[in-house]
Specification:
The protein contains 15 helices and 11 strands. With 393 residues, the chain is α/β, with parallel strands linked by helices. It has 3 domains: 147 residues, Rossmann fold; 107 residues, no CATH class; 69 residues, RNA polymerase sigma factor, region 2, helix turn helix motif (Rna Polymerase Sigma Factor, Chain: A). A 7-stranded parallel β-sheet has the order 4-3-2-1-5-6-7, with helices on both faces. It has a 4-stranded mixed β-sheet with strand order 9-8-10-11, with helices on one face. Helix 10 packs parallel to helix 12 and helix 14 packs across helix 15. The radius of gyration is 20 Å and the shape is globular. The structure holds nicotinamide-adenine-dinucleotide (NAD) and magnesium ion. The site of nicotinamide-adenine-dinucleotide has 26 residues, from helix 1, helix 6 and helix 9. The site of magnesium ion (MG) has 4 residues, from helix 7.
Length: 393
Amino acid sequence: MQNIAILGATGSIGQSTLDVVQLHPEKYNVVALTAHSNVDKLISQASQFQPDYLVISDAKSYGTAQQAVKSAQLNCELLVGEEGLCQVASASNVDSVMAAIVGAAGLLPTLAAVKSGKKVMLANKEALVMCGDIFIQEVNKSGAQLLPIDSEHNAIFQCLPRDFEHGDLATSGIAKILLTGSGGPFLNRALDRFQDITPDQACAHPNWDMGRKISVDSATMMNKGLEFIEAKWLFGLKSSDIQIVLHPQSIIHSMVQYADGSVLAQMGNPDMKTPIAHCLAFPNRISAGVKPLDFSTLADFSFQVPDFQRYPNLKLAIDACDAGQHATTALNAANEVAVEAFLSQQIGFTQIAQVNEEMLQRIEQQQLHDIEGILAVDKEVRILAKQFIGSIV
Ligand code: NAD
Ligand code: MG
């Protein structure tokens, strides 16, 4: 029996994880569920899965959650805040942690899971973007098992040889990592019509059903940029090892190209339950409740090169990746603030890249050796980005 804590249980990845777990009650036991403020959803999940712990991270929602736990007659401990998240992520009766909080808020709880040597199923890519080097060092120190949930990284992981050594492409005969992306909802939109894109249009991804932040990131292709940085840290790559390939159908989820000319691809219908099931059961396989791929009805596969004029955020992310940790930490913070401002209709779609570019120009080159330094840059850039947004609206 695997005892699981699900951080961000009420989100898209969290719910999909519960959907897979529900199919295998003999294999998985839910020990903890967390939500920021969606008390109703958390309580309904808890009534079904009967965890030992619930965490509500938004302190303002704690009172409501307390009442709700009582009236649902749940037999569990209710914790609050980031401290509560870190406590369940490192609890001794937890074997594995699904890290599915969105954004920088997921960093410390995910690191708590890593430091206590858990099996960590990583959806929260922002954690690696913010502090990849420190994160991987902590994984190595604690002996935690890090498994990628992000569909592209999960695909790459599946296409790498089982004995692949972090960063050693040559020994495995690997020529390139081909990171695929759909191009999002605006792949074919006229460039002069980008200003009037609305939040709902940006969140309507053609292939994937996701939370709103990552949906906007997919529309700007910042998501692929964050994934570029995530891939670098997960597999120990150089920028020149990674090639981004647009594949609008999202059937191939990424590929590994070998020196002998072979290309291994992982395919499947675009449904996050597949990588979730893969990580839950690794190294075994379980059913995920996903519709099987049907090659008799599959439309054509097509591929293109991404255009940086259409996706300026992608270029910013690749440049930040080459500039170093301070730059990717700053970019992540700027982007979270900008996306929030776009979703609340403070700024337009094209201004997301404007905010991000401005913050990358302003951040000073510096070495970041610890989490305190990372969090300081994150905080500083959030303040600057909000001020900058105030000056352009
Ligand atoms: P979501 O918005 O649907 O869910 C986010 C979860 O995080 C919710 O449970 C919410 O309560 C919690 N949360 C939000 N703010 C918080 C805060 N300040 N403190 C603590 N908890 C907070 O997001 P999602 O689409 O499930 O994505 C989650 C993560 O997984 C993101 O990092 C995303 O990039 C990554 N991811 C998602 C998908 C996908 O298909 N949805 C695919 C790949 C990677
Ligand atoms: Mg992805």
